[in-house]
Amino acid sequence: MLINTLLFLGAAVVVVPLSRLLKLGTVLGYLIAGLCLGPYGIGVFTEAEGILHFAELGVVLLLFLIGLELEGPRLSQTRTAMLRFGLPQLLVTVALIGGAVYLLGVSANLALVIGLALALSSTAFALQLMGERREFSTAHGQAGFAVLLTQDIAVIPILALLPFLGGGAPDTPVWISAAAVVGLVVVARFGLRPLLGYVARSAVPELFTAATLFVVMGAALAMSEAGVSMALGAFLVGIALADSEFKHQLESDIEPFKGLLLGTFFMAVGLGLDLGVVAANPLTIVAGAVALVAIKGAVLVAVARANGIPLANALLLGGLLAQGGEFAFVIFAEAGALGLLAPGMAGVLVATVTLSMALTPLLVWAAGAVIRPPSMDNEPIQPGEARPIIIAGFGRFGQMVGRVLGSLRINFTAIESSFEQVAFVRRFGHKVFFGDVTRLDTLKAAGIDNARLFILAVDDVDTSVACAELIRHHYPDLPIYARARNRNHSFRLLDLGVTELTRETMLSSTELARHVLEHEGYPVGQAEGIIRQWRRYDESLLREQSQFHTDESSLVASAQQAARDLEKLFEADASAKR
């Protein structure tokens, strides 16, 4: 078992980077790696079904992350896009493919099943490719997301319909499935936040990760037992938590598992490709895959153009979503179990879908080489997609900054590692999320890739320095406005190249000094001038001393000289006014 696991991982490590180097994408790399390990490669694995069932958890986690993104206005916009793009694509594709299969002599019920299965695209493939190509914010990326979401939701009624098409009744009564969905929504809406809050208070990061996986997998299992798609359960839980304070931490915790399991899923698809069936029916399978890609691509292009998407974007959309999807395997397996689909035909259909998946990265790569879509910079930014300001640390200091920004309707995203602080602040209407700012995946989930400014307001000095170091390493050009607890903290942050620095006691202490000067008889204007001059001088001194702050003797000498220089400066200023 251990040797097989090492071979499985080793194949991915060798083949996938090579595939990316050749600009074919990671998806095709995983497929090739799986094919190399399968019965028609070196024969390490002869049965892909078990691996495929396990790897389907990657699709489950993917749907959970999609649900997390659908909050408030974006959910409303997505619903509109689903009606404009997703529903027409699904209905027209089912009619065309189902009609074509029926004309070939297949029964009406089976033709409908095949049409429904082949109308679905691969969420895993398409989103992976769009993510690699950074196309989510493009016109075809947004339309593609709506189409995929429509298809994923449609899987639930399709699976429920199969027993009726097979002449039987579903294993689970429809009312039980409906009750399970309603129950999950209620529990997710009112029960998950208290549970995650309880775990977050323990301040044990790995325990929160375990709780996240427990929630997602538990919802998926509950839906599966109720005769509903596991993916739907994860998706509904994601939507329920989309506007919660845990959103970004949930995304960062799930992301590594999702990526690993999706890679396993693609390798399992490659493992399951029966080259024997391909060899016995080469023309049928190749013709079927080409026809599938052509029909779906044409429908997608037509729907996109009808909704005003430029031709270049429409063609890329057709290339991205023209393949068959992972849920086709599930539908074919269920149809076979119900006696609707003969094993021989099922093998040909699975090979056709797999071949269409393998063609997708090549199609997109070829399309990208000859098609130049309109620049993303010229597209309108959707609500929620504007380049954010991120505030790391939302204690007293961060809250004051946030209140000023909020009063001017300047949007920001705040991250705080103390759940008690998050729970308290959110009661007053502030949008702040629970998360660890020293983790790159948390910062990415908060939108740092597109951020225009990063405000570092963390209380703890070591955490603040670790966060600044992380950002400077990965985002060297991102402006950092930082809070410093004291002079030594300032030196450490300046070493890391922060853009702007504010010592938290500087303004308050010098303001108090100004009041003292006024009490001692200094005119208001003169007192303010003295304080301004002192602040400028000390700021200049701080940056000068940061060059040698590790040399204690030089630092002491500099401080003594600075005191003498400042005294002379004030004496000269006083003499000039006499």
From TrEMBL:
A Pfam match: Na_H_Exchanger
Taxonomy, superkingdom: Bacteria
SUPFAM superfamilies named among the record's database cross-references: NAD(P)-binding Rossmann-fold domains
Cellular compartments annotated: Endomembrane system
Spans through the membrane: 6-22, 27-45, 51-70, 82-104, 110-131, 143-162, 174-192, 204-222, 228-246, 258-279, 285-304, 311-333, 345-371
Gene Ontology CC terms, in alphabetical order: endomembrane system; plasma membrane
Keywords recorded for this protein, A-Z: Antiport, Ion transport, Membrane, Potassium, Potassium transport, Transmembrane, Transmembrane helix, Transport
GO biological process: potassium ion transport; proton transmembrane transport
Main location: membrane
Limits of the RCK N-terminal domain: 386-507
Protein name: Glutathione-regulated potassium-efflux system protein KefB
Taxonomic path: Bacteria, Pseudomonadati, Pseudomonadota, Gammaproteobacteria, Oceanospirillales
